[in-house]
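Standup notes, structure subgroup. Blocker cleared on the magnesium ion input:
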Amino acid sequence: MPSTISRPRVRLFASLVVLTAAVVSFAPAQEWVSGIPWPTPPTVDPGPVGGPPSDALVLLGDGRDLSQWERADQWQRHDGYITVAGDPLNATKRAFGDCQLHVEWAAPAEIQGAGQQRGNSGIYLMGRYEVQILDSYNNPTYPDGQAAAIYKQNPPLVNASRKPGEWQTYDIVFEAPRFAADGKLLRPALITVLHNGVLVQNHRPIQGETSFFEPPRYRAHPAKLPLAIQFHNNPVRFRNIWIRELPPSDAPPPKK
Ligand code: MG
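Run returned:
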């Protein structure tokens, strides 16, 4: 039996199908927008390489102004830097919680001692949580005690140490622990560390307060506490320490 549909009609139908598909595939998609009324981020001058940015608080510049520290008279002043001395911990006058912190330090150029006795110092966030400072250039020690370790908790991903006497940088992003009103831990502290620009701690949870004698544990404390630098009987140098207080990353976005 002959077909009731002619060939030209079949061709016309096929052409319409192809044309329709082409129009659909090239039609501009509707843009999706979140609708969240985000405020415009403030403008910050990043400053010279290494900072400080315009919104940072300089805690230690070239060593001349020590007014941000409780007992800085213990430290030794030099041209452009200080060396730590005195109490085991020396704290800032101001308290900080969530923050970005830049620190420049150098282990003594003259090598003395070995392991933990060589170029030991530390950055104590909230006066409790230590990012280890150590001369870890060809100086074996336990991995969770070497430079850029969360002391006795987590070794760095790599050893990015420079030679003793050379200036090194830590760039730290720290989120303070969260406690309930009854003191219960809601969320541990979180830390990211770049050592000389190399990522060595990637958003790691901190297990608790640093201690040489006990396992880490949390004890509830205020949302902000002073930052401290450790003196571990080694004349470690410091300069260019600046800090930026950060808004809490767990804050909800603005309401639609
Ligand atoms: Mg230390």
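Discussed briefly. The domain at 57-245 is CATH 2.60.120.560 (Jelly Rolls).
Next: hand off to the docking folks.
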